[in-house]
């Protein structure tokens, strides 16, 4: 995996540990489908939420933008929207990075989507996706001195 992608993985992993509430089914669906539709049609974000733009990365073959979906009610982060734009064909994909305490089904779908994006054509076993993601984040943190 590219070092910038690994940086992104570490950033997301560290940020998720500070989230307070789990991602709901409705929020997951909005982050993966509804948000893109709203932006494409020039509509406002889903009622009751706002976004905060995080990191923007340009990796060899893609641009990645991170948005935090924040609940207006209590300012908690519902999850992270990862916008992945392929530089070769401008194909855009939206992923949800859910809260670690979310229901297993939501986490499974998120890990499989992440794995399919990062490792196209390879078996999409959820446990392998999670292992790769966490391994890359841990490797980066050790190699850069975050963990000694």
Write a structural description.
The chain has one domain (3-141). Helix 1 (3-16) packs across helix 4 and helix 3 (104-118) packs across helix 4 (126-143). Helix content is 43%, strand content 26%. It has helices spanning 3-16, 25-40, 104-118, 126-143, and strands at 49-59, 62-71, 77-86, 92-98. Mean pLDDT is 75; it is low at 138-148. With 148 residues, it is α+β, with helices and mostly antiparallel strands. It has a four-stranded antiparallel sheet. The longest helix is centred in the last third of the chain and has 18 residues, at 126-143.
Rg is 15 Å
Shape: globular
The fraction of residues in strands falls at 25-35%
Low-confidence runs (pLDDT<50, min 5 residues)?
138-148
Q: Provide the domain count.
A: 1
How many beta-strand runs? Answer: 4
Number of DSSP helical runs:
4
Helical content class = 40-55%
Give the N-terminus to C-terminus distance in angstroms. Answer: 22 Å
Largest sheet: 4 strands, antiparallel
Structural class: alpha+beta
Strands side by side in the biggest sheet: 1-2-3-4
What's the short story on this structure?
The chain has helices at 3-16, 25-40, 104-118, 126-143; strands spanning 49-59, 62-71, 77-86, 92-98.
What keyword list fits this structure?
globular, 148 residues, 4-stranded antiparallel β-sheet, disordered C terminus, 26% strand, alpha+beta
């Amino acid at each position: 995996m590219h070092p910038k992608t690994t940086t992104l993985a570490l950033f997301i992993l560290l940020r998720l540990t500070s989230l307070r509430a789990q991602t709901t089914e409705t929020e997951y669906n909005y982050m993966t489908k509804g948000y893109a539709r709203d932006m494409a049609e020039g509509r406002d974000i889903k009622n009751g939420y706002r976004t905060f733009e995080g990191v923007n990365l340009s990796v060899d073959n893609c641009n990645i933008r991170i948005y935090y979906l924040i609940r207006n009610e209590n300012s908690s982060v519902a999850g992270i929207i990862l916008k992945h734009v392929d530089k070769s064909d401008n194909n855009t994909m939206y992923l949800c990075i859910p809260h670690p305490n979310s229901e297993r089904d939501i986490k499974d779908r998120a890990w499989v989507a992440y794995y399919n994006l990062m490792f196209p054509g390879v078996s999409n076993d959820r446990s392998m996706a999670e292992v790769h993601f966490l391994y890359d984040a841990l490797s980066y943190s050790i190699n850069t001195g975050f963990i000694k």
